[in-house]
Amino acid sequence: MLSYFAKRTMIGILTLLAASIIVFAVLEVVPGDPARLMLGMNATDDAVRALQEQMGLNQPLLLRYLSWLGGLLGGDLGRSYTYSVPVFDLITERVAVSLPLALASLAMSTLIAIPVGMFTASNRGKLSDTATMGIAQIGVAIPSFWFALLLVYVFAVTLRLLPAGGFPGWNAGLGAGLKSLILPSIALALPQAAILARITRSALLDVLGEDYIRTARAKGLSKRQILYRHALRNALIPVLTILGLQFAFLLAGTIIIENVFYLPGLGRLVFQAITQRDLIVVEGVVMLLVATVIIVNLLVDLSYAIVDPRLRSQQ
């Protein structure tokens, strides 16, 4: 188990290194000069060159990459061209919004999807199964931004139960902060719950056709005992895989939702940094997201051995 963990950790480190090279190279070929964008198109060439020298943009490409990589290893993500503050501070401020939003959405999605998947799998072929999976298919097809606008119209505009957008900050109180995240969490969670419910149903149906399930039925175990004691745990491998992918998506793919609800999260930060060509911010956020995906995938791989002891000997 320890050798497997060490191997996966080494692969993760190499993946981070490769990602840093790709991210840096891709953003360097993006057209536009950050210094000229900051000073305006009417700025003189001397002023642009002076700002480029101040920002370190006139150094050779390899030296700039090594300097940036060394900063990453030391916890220094650089300084934002636009905001003139450390990138680490910007990311920390925005993560305080995006991380609770992603966790709340993931928890909501899981609490909805797994019971629904179990219900439909245990009632395969019945009207309830067909109706539930039909609703799930609609949930998969509905665009998240349209669903978000619908939630705003119903719960914020019509019923006036929840705020339509904005984030008061955690200093305003835990209740006020959570209240502002309810609608965005629902808008993110329900489409993901529809996907996860279908995956759970499919995995359970595969397990319910195994020989040991038929043996359990022959022993007289109830349908509920078979489902919870034998089928669910063995069906969790693909479910855990999707959960890991969904968390990465929820943390990184919230640009549209954060713009709909005007939330100051990582998604909006990346969007603003791209439009302003604040490359150092984009690089920092992307590397944070890559590291998060690698860590989550590592935890998912380790959880396989916990869920299914048979995999421990194979690792």
The largest pleated sheet is described as: none
| CATH third-tier fold name of the largest domain | MetI-like fold
SSE ordering:
HHHHHHHHHHHHHH
Specify the overall morphology.
Answer: globular
- The fourth-level CATH homologous superfamily of the largest domain is MetI-like
Number of helices: 14
Commentary on this structure:
There is one protein chain. This protein is mainly alpha-helical and 315 residues long. It folds into 2 domains: 72 residues, no CATH class; 225 residues, Orthogonal Bundle (MetI-like fold). It is 76% helix and 0% strand. It is built from 14 helices and no strands. α5 packs antiparallel against α6, α5 runs antiparallel to α11 and α5 runs parallel beside α14. It is globular. The termini are close together. The mean pLDDT is 82. One of its GO terms (cellular component) is plasma membrane.
List keywords for this structure.
transport, 2 domains, mainly alpha, single chain, MetI-like fold, 0% strand
Offer a quick outline of the entry.
This is Peptide ABC transporter. By secondary structure, the protein is mainly alpha-helical.
List the helices and strands and how they pair.
Blueprint lengths: L1 H27 L5 H6 L5 H11 L5 H13 L13 H36 L4 H15 L2 H15 L15 H35 L2 H8 L4 H12 L1 H17 L2 H6 L5 H10 L3 H29 L8
Helix pairs in contact: 1-14, 5-6, 5-8, 5-11, 5-14, 6-8, 7-8, 8-11, 11-14, 13-14
